[in-house]
Amino acid sequence: MEVDEFDFGSEDARNLNLRSESERRAFVDSFVPPRRFKLDDFYEGGKYFVYGPKGAGKTALLQYIRIKAEEELSAAAEFYFFQSSFSESELNAFKAKKRNENEEIIDDRSLVNADEAAIFWRLFFLVEAARILRRSNVIDGPASDFHKMVEISKLISQSKNVGKRYPVLKEFHIKLSKNPEIQIDGDFAEATPADLSVYLELAEEKLDSVYLEQRPIFLFVDEMEIYSHGDQRDDLRIVAIGSLVRAVRNFNERFFDSDIRIIAAIRDEVAERVSVVQGEIYRIIRDKGIKLEWNATIKSGFHPLEKMVLGRIVCQDGEFSGYRFPIDDSELEAAHKKYFPGKHSLSKCLDLTWYRPRDLALLFEEASIIDAGRSKFRQKTLREDVLKSLGERLWQDALSGLAVQYTRTELDGIDRIFRGGKPTYTRPDFIARISDLSDMYDDVAILSEIKWTKILEDLYRVGVLFTTEESTGYKNFYFRGDPPPAFSKAFTVSVHQSLRKELSIA
What we know:
It is a single chain. The chain is built from 21 helices and ten strands. It is an alpha/beta fold. The strands form two sheets. A six-stranded parallel sheet has the order 3-2-4-5-1-6, sandwiched between helices. A four-stranded antiparallel sheet has the order 7-10-8-9. A hairpin with a 6-residue loop joins strand 8 (about 465-470) and strand 9 (about 475). Helix 15 runs antiparallel to helix 17. The model has no long low-confidence stretch (mean pLDDT about 85).
């Protein structure tokens, strides 16, 4: 095969191609789960959060669990994305493309009140469970009573009294079932919020009685985002995310002994931002979740991220059609020898990234375009030619990650500090750089009011910067597991090599 014929995955896992059996097989067989991950923890309800930094592969891991649950448990599954996590262009592109089956977009823009958000999620998860049960033709016996209670709850949610208390439910646009077997007696136009709570409890009791062992239900909820505006909108967004975390926890605990699970992803930075106001949120996520980290030091063999790249080659190249799962290291080595120019060329590619699945998908997407028509990647392509595009996308991604805490003006100031600057700064150099630019530009002057040590810590955490120890020359990278240094003392900090072309750093 030629290098541009391979699908190395997607920079954004929301756009993974998983419709055909061959696409799903290539994805699952090449996927390397993170350390301490056990599928049974998620099957049995012991774990139900996936968390980690931006680009770490949270959405991909949810998709992996979904496919495995469908294959191993005959599960019925649905995948939900939040409208707020898309830019306008991303949302239009996502809606326009032929999406994978059983994927939905949730309009979460109105979820700004804690009480409203809590009742919204409680109703939403029950409505979705009912929809999946109907799709699976589970409609008789206790399921029939459950469907009826859900339909009544939906009717009550649209009553004027409930609408006054929970306006967000009016925007929910709930569609009532047209199933003639569901007969609802009575008029619920005057129903109250108390009535809604009663029927939601009845619906939950009925769902508890539905036999799901042969067809368990999994709802996968992708991450909800925060973009800092520096005003009341930030507080409202924090409320919405905190309510979602509690709703997922409450549902899973309520139905722990049933075969129905909600599994959700959340970004580290978002969880930390919410936890500043609602301290228990991070504890819930940490206790009931698995963190995605790819910073393991490998003494021999391939790094897990290298294995995923080579695994995708093995799964798609007909020469390896007889491979067995899990893919043997000898086949990974054969794939490396066939398509890469040197013994350590793939590991050197990893050093151009921030040790995230997203980065490698992006790098090889670009390398495949540059080396289109070739049977092997060129050394120059992997060392130099990918840097312009890779650096541009990494910088955009870094600013997007920082948008949880910094406003658009502050992000412009951060860009100005590093663009056209030096590759390496000592502590006095960096202070002088901010001081000089603050006199000329308001966006940098705003930043000078924030402790500059915090800015450096945040940039170190997202991968933009690394530090060098003066005594040993050792380079510290956060994404490799090195803790941030004390920026209040003497330091030497450098801009990551992949960003220097993008930032016009000589």
